[in-house]
Amino acid sequence: MNEQTTPQGDDAFGPAFILWKRRRFVLGMAAVGLLGGIIAAVAVPSLYKSEVVLFPAITNSVSKALLSEQSTGRDDILALGDEEDVEQLLQVLHSDQVRERTAARFNLPAVYRIKPESRHKHSELRDAFEKHVKFGNTRFGSVYITVKDEDPQRAADMANFMSAMVDSVWNEMAHERALKGYRIVQESVDALTAEIQQLGDSLEVLRSLGVQDYHSQAERYNEYLGAAIVKGDQRAINEFERRFAILAKYGGAYVSLQDRQFNEIRRLSVLRMKLEQAKADLESDLPHKFTVNSAYPADRKSWPIGWLVVAMTTAATVFLAVLLLIIQEKLRKIRSPHG
After folding, report:
1. Which residue range is the domain that position 263 belongs to?
2. Which of 4, 76, 266, 302 has the greatest count of CB atoms below 10 A from its CB?
3. Close Cβ partners of 291 (under 8 Å, ≥ 6 residues apart)
4. 204 vs 100, more confident
């Protein structure tokens, strides 16, 4: 009876007794884990981190910010951008142009050990780039560019280079659109200038026929004709009747051309103002961000953290050893005929 109720030696202390009995194995595995962690911490390439912090500027054209007479609420070139501007800045940083130019500038395929003959070299470069480069926004409305690299100087140079590329890529996109807009307005200005010149030539022809200013001439002719009738000056009466005949024949065309010329000159004035604005946008190199912190070479590595790698490797090895002992003990009990 006592033999049936008394627990066996191994069960009396449970897992603690098993660990004590196999303590040499556990300690040996811990030593192996410790050694492996040290080797891993030494073997894993060290990465150094550099970071640039930017604030987006308001994304507004120079012409509207500086030349427009109407205030839009976003015409302060010194104001910080809002959430929408932050998203636009991040989108530019995530663009293929920034990644490809950075890869070409620093020869990243060689840095990331990507084989040139690989069929998936572009995908491998993209994955490696995203692993080492991070973009994001902060709760303060700023944007950060973080680069981790084996060379601290290269990490800082890459972060600063991508910060500079924001304005370069952005201005190229804006320049392409601004150039088309400038050409459209320039063509309209040229066409309208030629049309106004034709109207002026037509008016000159009418003036050579005797129509100088229809309204003032008609008023003066009426005044002089009345005076000639009162005096009974038939020669003067005939002369003014002849001039009235010229006004009657060409006066309508003169007034029409004069009104049209006035309206076209007013349109030309508006178009020339738009041309100045388009030219300002075309030649603009206004920065689209404010640099808060530029990157500098780190003086200590950010990864791997030696003690953390050693501790995690040792803890994982000990855990695995304990798990194996527990499984081994369970299997032994299952196979034991006494249960």
Report:
1. 190-283
2. 302
3. 52, 53, 54, 163
4. 100
